[in-house]
Write a structure and sequence with these properties.
Blueprint: H1 7-24, E1 32-36, H2 42-49, E2 53-58, H3 61-71, E3 76-78, E4 91-97, H4 106-116, E5 117-126, H5 133-138, H6 155-164
Parallel strand pairs: 1-2, 1-4, 2-3, 4-5
């Protein structure tokens, strides 16, 4: 135990992040990966173990300390994507899992994300789907209705974002 979460929870998170990394490896086997919203570093850890050069951006200072203990002090920035010093066109893969729905100003956030990736790079994101069947069943009790979720992104909205930023959307 690390005082924050039981070890079995970390292992479960790492297993989930390895699944995402295996999806990414359909496109990239190595390179520079930036995770926005890196939390306690589960994705960064598995990506680093698989040979990727990793960098994380995380708002929580506590989570940063834990992530840094896993992947190195220099590999995790405490702050926002907008404030991170990232050279334009330097990232092969930008990964964000359940982050965009927390961002108060998504357009400048996405502009920075797109500027950060290399030509041919990818942005891999997950976000709650407001058209998911579970929302119609649970209604106002849907698990993703939380105060910290500022907005939701439908498939139509994600398609608009892809068009606006000249991205190709994979489902």
């Amino acid at each position: 135990e690390n005082g924050v979460l039981p070890d079995h929870v970390f292992r479960l998170k790492e297993k989930t992040m390895l699944w995402h990394l295996n999806q990414i490896k359909r496109f990239f086997w190595k390179g520079r990966v930036l995770e926005v919203g890196s939390a306690m570093g589960s994705f960064l850890k598995v990506a680093q173990e698989e040979g990727f050069d990793v960098m994380g951006v995380e708002l929580s200072e506590t989570a940063c300390k834990i992530a840094r203990s896993k992947v190195g002090e220099e590999n995790v920035f405490n702050g926002t994507l907008e404030n991170a010093d990232i050279e334009p066109g330097s990232i092969d893969v930008l990964f964000m899992s359940d982050v965009i729905e927390h961002v108060p100003q998504p357009v400048p956030f996405l502009e920075k994300a797109v500027r950060s990736i290399k030509r041919g790079g990818i942005i891999y994101l997950t976000t709650p789907d407001p058209s998911h069947w579970s929302r119609s069943i649970f209604g106002k009790n849907w698990v993703h209705y939380k105060d910290e979720h500022l907005m939701f992104f439908s498939k139509e909205t994600l398609n608009w974002i892809a068009d606006r930023f000249s991205l190709y959307l994979f489902d």
